[in-house]
Specification:
The complex is a heterodimer of chains A (111) and B (113). Chain A has 111 residues and is mainly beta. Chain A is built from no helices and eleven strands. Chain A has strands at 3-7, 10-14, 19-26, 30-38, 45-50, 56-59, 62-66, 70-75, 84-92, 99-101, 105-110. In chain A, strands 2, 4, 5, 9, 10 and 11 form a six-stranded mixed β-sheet that branches. A five-stranded antiparallel β-sheet of chain A has the order 1-3-8-7-6, with no helix packed on it. Chain B has strands at 4-6, 10-13, 19-25, 31-38, 42-51, 54-57, 64-70, 73-78, 87-94, 103-104, 108-112. Classes of the chains: A mainly beta (111), B mainly beta (113).
């Protein structure tokens, strides 16, 4: 069964305490893995797209990496404003516009 | 920046009512989507549209229909609202043509009583 699993469900970090969020997937024919950030009461906001194993993308304190089975979102020296839910989604197959979303990791960064 | 606008932030409806949720995007995107988001279940695709008047069912289309008469507007219709349709509804769009990142609206929190 095609699925996307994110871990942990929730994570509390002290400001400056680096960590990683995991997104593992079991789909055939990956056509893109996407990371989004969602603040409470808002829609998800795009962060990164990764297409092939070994690819990395960076934005400020965030770095996303991709292997054949999982992706990591590394957060370096986080700040309280990084607190949000981080969602992972995969697009797979051909001729389809479907994505599978994970249930997200709720990150709380304490000052 | 792309803007995806959902017509209502909060809605309260009665069981059996017909409910319309409207979504407008301003960047000439080909594809538009309706998702619902429930705690512990993540985002689930209801319907999507890849062109005007074209639509395809997502993973949970039962009880819903959609309309796309103009490229910029995608409407979700709950034919007869039920309590199990209480949820956060998110509209999204993507450019298409190989650029598939999704741009989301702020969501509509629908409560069906």
């Amino acid at each position: 069964e095609d699925q996307v699993t994110q871990s942990p469900e929730a994570l509390r970090l002290q400001e400056g305490e680096s960590s990683s969020l995991n997104c593992s997937y079991t789909v055939s024919g990956l056509r893109g893995l996407f990371w989004y950030r969602q603040d409470p009461g808002k829609g998800p906001e795009f962060l990164f797209t990764l297409y092939s194993a070994g690819e990395e993308k960076e934005k400020e304190r965030l770095k996303a990496t991709l292997t054949k089975k999982e992706s990591f979102l590394h957060i370096t020296a986080p700040k309280p404003e990084d607190s949000a839910t981080y969602l992972c989604a995969v697009r797979w197959g051909s001729g389809t516009y479907k994505y599978i979303f994970g249930t997200g990791t709720r990150l709380k960064v304490l000052a | 920046d792309v803007k995806v606008t959902q017509s209502s932030r909060y809605l309260v409806k009665r069981t059996g009512e017909k409910v319309f949720l409207e979504c407008v995007q301003d960047m000439d995107h080909e594809n538009m989507f309706w998702y619902r988001q429930d705690p512990g279940l993540g985002l689930r695709l209801i319907y999507f549209s890849y062109d005007v008047k074209m639509k395809e069912k997502g993973d949970i289309p039962e009880g819903y229909s959609v309309s796309r008469e103009k490229k910029e507007r995608f409407s979700l219709i709950l034919e007869s609202a039920s309590t199990n349709q209480t949820s956060m509804y998110l509209c999204a769009s993507s450019l298409g043509q190989g650029n598939e990142k999704l741009f989301f609206g702020s969501g509509t929190q629908l409560s069906v009583l």
